Amino acid sequence: MTPDGGRRGPSPRPPRWTHHLRLWQLVLPASLFLAVYFAVPLVMLFWWSFHAPGVAGLTLGNFHKLLTDAFFLQTLWLSVRLSLEVTAVTLVLGFPLAYLYTRLGPVWRVSILFITLLPLLTSAVVRSFAWIVILGKQGLINGALVASGLVDAPVKLLFTLDGVRIALAQVQLPFMLLPLINAMEQLDPSLETAAVSLGASQARAFFRVTVPLSAPGIVAGAILSFALTISAFITPAMVGGGSFTVMPTLIYQSAIVTLDWTIASTTAFILLAVALLVVWGGMAIARRYRYGPAGG
Amino acid sequence: MTAMRREAAAPSGVAGVGAGRLRGRLGHAAFWTVMWALGLGALLYLLLPTLIIVAASLTASDYIAFPPHGLSVRWFVRLWALEEVRVAAGRSLLIALAATAISVVLGVAAAFPLVRSRFRGREGLNAFLMSPLILPSLVYGLAALMFVSAIGVPLSIPVLVLSHVAVIVPYVIRTTAASLSLLDPHLEEAARSLGANAWNTFLRVVLPNLVPGIATGAAFAFISSFDNLTVSLFLADPRVETLPIRLFAMINFDLDPAAAAISAVLVTLAFAVVVLAHWAIGLTRIVRL
Amino acid sequence: MAITGLSRRDVLAGGMTAALALAARGAGWAQQKELVANTYGGGWEAGHRLAIAQPLEKRLGVKVTLVSMLAAELVARTKASAGGRPPVDVALVDDGPFLLAIKEGVFQPLPMDKIPNAKRIFEKYRPKEPFGVPIGASQIGIAYNSKKLKTRPSSFADLWNAEYKGRIGLSTPASTLGTVTLLSFARLKGGDEGNVEPGFEAVKSLLPSVASIQAVPANLRTLLERGEVDIAPMWHHDTSILKSKGTGVEFVLPKEGGIAGLAWLAITKGANTELALEYINQGLAVESQQTMAGPPSFIGPVVEGVEVAAEWRGIVPATPQDLEKLKTLDWPRINLQRAEWINRWNREIKV
């Protein structure tokens, strides 16, 4: 039996142009495309952030203008604060779910992944819209709060910062969850069982063994969640309704409404720099925690 | 905490053991209750908004309501009548198909050297090719707008398509590379030993086995392009309004059940992609990518 | 397989050139038959689509695309596209941005003789410079939910009424509505376009009663519709939309005088002028104006011969006499300071 199903004759010859092809060259089209259409624009943005309208040559003028403006600093701080809060919430909610994932059977696992991936693949516009519907005074959340007696009157959630927090946490939860699951899957469950058999309570074993060992996943998830939240534009715009400003709003406004691209670039640059700083800071803290009490 | 250790290590007498075990069991129960509560809460939190918007799209009323006031598909029917929605949807489809096609060509090709070749800087190149996934699309949208304007190219559908390619090609590369690395090299060896040459082996052994991986990557890429708002907002000319942009505008001006209907359609699309991904590769394996 | 005489490369090159030429021709051809016009979203877009775009498409067999773009973005993008195709052919802008855009040089002068229907424009609305024509008249007053609030407001000063505490909605100066609100408050306390300080003070003193501040007027309308706010300064057409939905929202013209506003149509430089003129002419036709004066747009007509239904009279400004009772604003002066007002509001006003 010949590989081509029994037909006689020589197997088809490859096209002549493949003769001169080296395997590594196959990566060139994608690499060149991204280099030109992805990297170059970003370098340009970096370059433009050091320019200002009406000023020739490189200048720190925009940086000075922004970093001395009270409203800008206020917005920057709000963005950072909001993103940290949202990341913390996604961690608290995501970790138990990731933990359950590792302890449950295949049907549960697929279901959890399904429910996690579905919002990811749904447009941010749709997800934000859903929250607009849910957060109204007659919406689901207020309905539940009033019915349970936790509040006397409906709470104002739509077009507020609180509402955006709630919406953003749900939008970012999958980004926290997936790295967590990834990391925790690779942990040996017998480690925790061993700790329990040595006399630790379940909770203790969890906090002393599982959590520290999941640190890489926590860090990865937190970084992703934080970076995406601080640059989120759609959800704060729709669910916040323009009642407050975050960094992405400023960038969009200066780019599209006022058309001052140098300021927009500088703002974007500062956003990236601050995000990176926070991430590095977080990783440094995480590292110290890992080599600290866990050893003692 | 030292008290627990002492107790567990040296339970004093039968009563001590019993008390220790009871505390252990209560602790065990409490722990799992909390875990399950938070876990299920998280699942509900993830799922509810999607369900609610789909439910709201089936309302018979003139305004957005959840729970829906009466069930009806009239808003889906209405979508078809809304010319601007039809046009935007068609445009989004065209852009997504074009961007996905280009991404598949670029991405599948790139996956091979990343998995099979050994060359210096391979890790770095891989990181570079994956970087659009972690860079905020807001920043990229701005950068792309400025770049295109600087080189003097007017905004158009091809410009938008290419910018989508930049942000979606990593999906194709990643799933194809993962699929390729999982491919049993023995298969190719067997084909070669039976007399097939390299090209034939590629066509008839390697490629068919890669199809699930490529298809999944392509599906993710497609829906990312179809859903994309941030990059499109920056690069969109009024003449190239995509469906997410139209939806965004609709919601910002009026909370209409028609917007909910469009959303429900997008959710269905996402649903189809997840099902495809599960069928092709299996969701549990995708997580490990 | 080699084609005798020509190498594959030649065929490819030839094919591409031919394709490009065809595409260019096609694009040019398409351009003659295509128009992009700006509207505001919601009711305005629906009204313009029904009254102008669709009749035009039917009559001339062309394609009209309606987009909604804020005035600031429109000006910015048009300037950026200088030399090429502007983002829209026909622009719709409010009074203030209209003057600003003229100064920025983004509109082309209109050959009024090519717009026959312009002869019917009310004398009072006729433009001083031929850079645009009015297309709709609007007024700003107070929208309040009569089902939920017992006291009918008669003036902006009534907003400080105890019954409205915690139920007021406001707009920021980022929108015309918000700018007008700020100025109305200023005028209440003795200020004007040159001295807006009393306005800011007034807003700050009202803050304890304010439930929500929105930059986008449409959001304010949403909140009013869903009962998150029950009273707010609002455009008459937004209020009419809410009233027509049976929400119980009513429109009140303040006794100190509401504020009048005109919306203008203009043609951007580099636009498809021929079709744009047709669009404008269609917009000024009596049937179109009649359509737009009714639901879902409720836009006040600018030409003679339009009948406004009885139940909407008093809300929809039907004649210049209606608008005469209203104040108009010194937009050139406002334009100079608006950015500063917006920044100051962002910094100082928080709910």
CATH topology value of the largest domain in chain C: D-Maltodextrin-Binding Protein, domain 2
By DSSP, the count of extended strands of chain C is 10
Secondary-structure element string of chain C: HEHEHEHEEEHHEHEHEEHHHH
Summarize the amount of helix of chain C as a percent range. Answer: 40-55%
**What's the average pLDDT of chain C?**
83
Number of helices of chain A: 13
CATH level 3 topology of chain A: MetI-like fold
Instruction: Determine Rg of chain A (CA atoms, Å).
Output: 25 Å
User: What percent strand of chain C?
Assistant: 15-25%
> What coarse outline of chain C follows from CA principal-axis ratios?
globular
Number of helices of chain C: 12
**CATH A-level architecture of chain A:** Orthogonal Bundle
Evaluate the radius of gyration of chain C: 23 Å
Characterization of this structure:
The complex is a heterotrimer of chains A (296), B (289) and C (351). Chain A has helices spanning 28-48, 61-67, 70-103, 106-120, 124-135, 140-147, 161-185, 189-197, 202-213, 215-230, 234-240, 247-257, 261-291. By secondary structure, chain A is an all-alpha fold. Chain A has one domain: MetI-like fold (Orthogonal Bundle), CATH 1.10.3720.10. The longest helix of chain A has 34 residues, at 70-103. In chain B, helix 4 (83-116) runs antiparallel to helix 9. Mean pLDDT of chain B is 85; it is low at 1-12. Helix content of chain B is 79%, strand content 0%. Chain C is built from twelve helices and ten strands. By secondary structure, chain C is an alpha+beta fold. In chain C, helix 2 (43-60) packs across helix 9 (273-283) and helix 3 packs parallel to helix 4. In chain C, the strands form three sheets. In chain C, strands 3, 4, 5, 8, 9 and 10 form a six-stranded antiparallel sheet that branches. Chain C has a two-stranded parallel ribbon with strand order 1-2. At the A-B interface, helix 1, helix 3, helix 4, helix 5 and helix 7 of A face helix 1, helix 2, helix 4, helix 5 and helix 6 of B.
Q: Which SSEs are present, and which pair or pack?
A:
The complex is a heterotrimer of chains A (296), B (289) and C (351).
Chain A: H1 28-48, H2 61-67, H3 70-103, H4 106-120, H5 124-135, H6 140-147, H7 161-185, H8 189-197, H9 202-213, H10 215-230, H11 234-240, H12 247-257, H13 261-291
Chain B: H1 2-9, H2 13-57, H3 74-81, H4 83-116, H5 122-130, H6 137-150, H7 157-181, H8 185-193, H9 198-227, H10 230-235, H11 243-253, H12 257-280, H13 283-287
Chain C: H1 8-32, E1 34-39, H2 43-60, E2 63-68, H3 71-80, E3 90-94, H4 95-104, E4 107-108, E5 133-145, E6 168-171, H5 176-188, H6 197-206, E7 210-214, H7 217-225, E8 231-235, H8 236-244, E9 249-252, E10 259-268, H9 273-283, H10 286-293, H11 320-324, H12 331-348
Helix pairs in contact in C: 2-9, 2-10, 3-4, 4-12, 5-6
